[in-house]
Amino acid sequence: MDLLVGILLGVTLTYVGFTFFYKKNNEQKTEKQSVVLMEKIKSVCKLISVEGDFAEIYHFENTKYHFLNIITSKKKAILLINAKAHIGYDLSQIKLEADNKKKEIILTHFPEPKILTVETDVKYYDKADGFFNKFDAADLTGLNKEAKSFIVEKIPKSGLIDSAKKEALDTILMIEQLLETTGWKLNYSQLVLPKVETKIIN
C-alpha cells in the first residue's frame, strides 16, 4: 500500500513538475518571440512610401563692394536643379507593446511622414564671375547646399507629405500581414493616424 501511494505521489509530482517546466519554458519562448518580432518590425527602419521629382530654376547673385564701397563686383549664376525626394516613415520611431498571452502586438504610436532623402543634380548656366568677385570651390559647395534647401522648402507645398499620410494605413496593414505569418496579431484599435490636410478650392 505504501509502495502504491509512493508511486502515485511520484507520478503526480513528476507531472506537476513537467507541466510547470513546460509552461514556464513556453512563456519564455513566447516572450522572446514577441521581442524578436518587435525588433524585426523596427529593423525595417525607413520605409519609402512616396517619391517626387522636381525641376526648378534657382537664381544666384552676390555683390561685393570694394574701395570704400565705390566699386562693386558681382558674380551670378542660374542653377537648373533636378531633384528626387523620398517621403516616408521612420519605423524605428513606432511604439509597440506585446501581449504574450494573446500573442498580440499592440501598436500605440505611428510616426508622422518625413523627408527621408533628397537627391539633387545641379547644372549651372550663365555663370559669370565679377572682376573682384569670382566663384571658388567653397561657393559651388555652398550653392549645392542651397539648391537642396531650396527643394526641401518646396516639398510641403507639393502635396507629397499628404500623399504619404494617406498610405499610413497601407504600411500598418503590411506590418499586420508580417505578423500573421508568424501566428501573431496586430492591434492598432487605439492608434490615431496622421491627419491628412484637405484643401478647399474656392
What does this structure look like?
The chain has 202 residues and is an alpha+beta fold. The protein contains four helices and six strands, in the order αβββββαααβ. It has a three-stranded antiparallel sheet with strand order 1-2-5. Strands 3-4-6 form a three-stranded mixed sheet. A hairpin with a 4-residue loop joins β1 and β2. The chain is elongated. The termini are far apart.
Secondary-structure blueprint of this entry?
Elements lengths: L1 H42 L2 E21 L4 E20 L4 E5 L4 E6 L4 E15 L8 H22 L1 H7 L1 H13 L4 E3 L15
Parallel strand pairs: 4-6
Antiparallel strand pairs: 1-2, 2-5, 3-4
Given the structure, what is the number of helices? Answer: 4
Question: How are the strands ordered across the major sheet?
Answer: 1-2-5
Strand content: 25-35%
Helical fraction: 40-55%
Number of strands: 6
How is the main sheet built? 3 strands, antiparallel
Could you say which overall geometry the principal axes of the C-alpha atoms support?
Answer: elongated
Uncertain regions: pLDDT < 50 for 5+ in a row?
Answer: 197-202
Mean pLDDT comes to 77
Mind telling me the C-alpha Rg? 31 Å
Assign the structural class, choosing from mainly alpha, mainly beta, alpha/beta, alpha+beta, or little secondary structure: alpha+beta
- Element-level helix/strand string: HEEEEEHHHE
N-to-C span: 96 Å
